[in-house]
Every structure is written in structure tokens, then in C-alpha cells.
Structure prediction request, 183 residues.
Amino acid sequence: MSDRRNNRFGPFRRRRRLRLAPTFGPPELNRNEEAEPPQPVPVPAIENSDKPQLISDRYILLENVEGTKLRKALDIITKKEYSCSVLNRQIGATVLEAHFRLQSSEFVAQPTEIITAGSEEFIFYPKNHGDIHAYVRDHLIRDEDQAQMIIRQIVGAVADCHSAGIVLTDLKMRRFVFANAKK
Prediction:
């Protein structure tokens, strides 16, 4: 019984086969039969410290935004504040693909700038004005119209994602942020 918990395939193990590229050119250059299995590629650690960092001689990354994985960022030229998501390149590409699918959505914030530096992608978004969880926690909602407005925004964002083929998992009120101060 304990073996099944440790092995997600039960008592049977799947074998991984080495896939070899097709051979081209003279046989002495093709040594696929002696190929070693690929080694896992180490993913570099992303610095999640609250120390300010200068990115691309334009943005200063500041502290983390409360309750999120985003960091505050300041454009040193325009003095405008942004939210920045720091991701490794592979995850960043997936996030950007989702944003490109959702370009026409009025409920999903679009990146304002994308900077690739080394193995990291810095995706800058307009500054948000708090999340729905904090808003509901801080403001006692007594008005049905106000509750409808919030629910309409949540349902609109989820519907836009689903119509673009994006399935949202782990939905929480903290993941929905307001794009402007009017909420």
C-alpha cells in the first residue's frame, strides 16, 4: 500500500524512452546509437527578495505587492508606478501567450512592457488598485448593486478566459485586481 502512495502509477512504472533525432549526412557524423539520456536542465532561482533591483536601466523593482507574487516597480524616467511579474523564460512565454489570446478583453490587464534579462522575464503591468479580497474585507457591502458590479467583473474575466481557451485554476478573490481606483 505504501508503494502505491510513493509511485503515482501504482505498482507499475513507466519507462522513459530516449527519442533520437533523425540521422542526416555521412554515417560517421551520426552517432545517435551512442547518445546518452538527456540530463535535467537546472532552473535558475529567481530572486524574490525585497531588495531594490535596477532592470534595463529604466525600472527599479521594489517590495512585493501584499498577497501576490508581483513586485512594485517604478519607472525612473516617468516616475510612474507599475506591477511587475518576475518569471523564468519558460513560464513567462506561457503567461504571455495567454495575454496575447486575451488582448480584446476589457477585464484582463495587458502588459505594458516585457523585458528579458538573462534567464528571467520581467512583465510590467499598470499599477493595480487593490484586489477584490481586500475590498470586500475592508468595505462592508450592503448594497446589492455594488455586489453585482463585483460579481459581473469576476464572471466577465473568467468568461473571457474560457472563450479564449484558457482554463483558470485556483480561483481566489486575491487574484482579481482592480485596474482603476473607481473599482
Remarks:
- The first helix runs from residue 2 to 6.
- Residues 53-126 form a domain with the Phosphorylase Kinase; domain 1 fold (CATH 3.30.200.20).
- The chain has four helices and six strands.
- Residues 17 and 98 are 31 Å apart (CA to CA).
